[in-house]
Write a structure and sequence with these properties.
Number of strands: 10
Order of helices and strands: EEEHEEHHEEHEEHHHEHH
Number of helices: 9
CATH superfamily: 2-enoyl-CoA Hydratase, Chain A, domain 1
Structural class: alpha/beta
CATH class: Alpha Beta
CATH topology: 2-enoyl-CoA Hydratase, Chain A, domain 1
Distance between the termini: 42 Å
Largest sheet: 7 strands, mixed
Radius of gyration: 17 Å
Number of domains: 1
Shape: globular
Length: 246
């Protein structure tokens, strides 16, 4: 029986408990930008889920029409190189943490997911998207930027080999159905079905052996997680190269 409870986790992040699933709602009323405070709130929610044996899975849910449209532009356009590096590196650590979490994470992609938003999708186990006119993908090259190494690493691990060059090098952005084909999403459903479908997937994953799941994540993804960690550390120390996602 469902017993939902809802509590604030930050300015734009709310967590809701539904049985053994923790739903993390992202809603800033605008583009759902990935800011330092949002990264901290999502990280805290994930840590809470990992520390609570009664939580079996997490759902990351966007606002109507927008999952996440990228990093906070007020930082990205500030001219403060140090602040940009910190934000992008923190975002990379969040993506890495999602991908390496001992608790399964499901994305309920409610619309646009560009740049950092698309990278968040790559960090989630199962990605359910809304079948509407939206933009999903890595548009960095189109706006004159180069993805940081950690982003290229997870893109290489998760995206379809058939589409990898087009969606990364050519910055091809698609709707939800195209995102299923390229590997950003696993399925596209009607708008009213996105969150229920994501919760259903989360419940299925929550029924798995937690110990076996966590051990298999480390065994299968460990090399990628270690490589991402080294790349993020390098970026923090030496900068992220000629460009970063906005």
């Amino acid at each position: 029986m469902s017993d939902p409870t809802s509590t604030p986790a930050g300015d734009t992040v709310t967590i809701e408990r539904i049985d053994d699933v923790l739903v993390v709602h992202l809603d800033d009323g605008k583009a759902n930008a990935l800011s330092a405070s949002v990264i901290a709130a999502v990280t805290a929610a994930l840590a809470h889920a990992e520390a609570d044996d009664t939580i079996g899975a997490v759902v990351l849910h966007g606002r109507p029409g927008k999952f996440c449209a990228g990093f906070d532009l007020s930082v990205m356009r500030s001219g403060d190189v140090g602040a940009v590096i910190r934000l992008v590196s923190d975002g990379g650590e969040l993506v890495r943490r999602l991908y390496g979490s001992p608790v399964p994470v499901v994305a309920a992609c409610t619309g646009h997911a560009l740049a950092a938003g698309a990278l968040l999708l790559l960090g989630c186990d199962v990605r359910v998207g809304v079948d509407v006119d939206c933009k999903i993908g890595l548009n960095e090259v189109a706006i004159g930027m180069v993805l940081p190494d950690w982003a290229l690493t997870i893109a290489d691990d998760r995206l379809s080999r058939r589409h990898l060059q087009r969606v990364v090098v050519h910055a091809v952005v698609t709707d939800a159905r195209g995102a299923v084909d390229s590997g950003f999403l696993d399925e596209a459903v009607a708008e009213h079905e996105v969150l229920p479908a994501a919760i259903a997937h989360a419940r299925t994953l929550a029924a798995l052996s937690g110990r076996a799941y966590a051990g298999t994540v480390l065994a299968l993804r460990g090399r990628v997680l270690e490589q991402m960690a080294a790349q993020i550390t390098h970026d923090r120390e030496f900068g992220a190269g000629p460009g970063v996602p906005a």
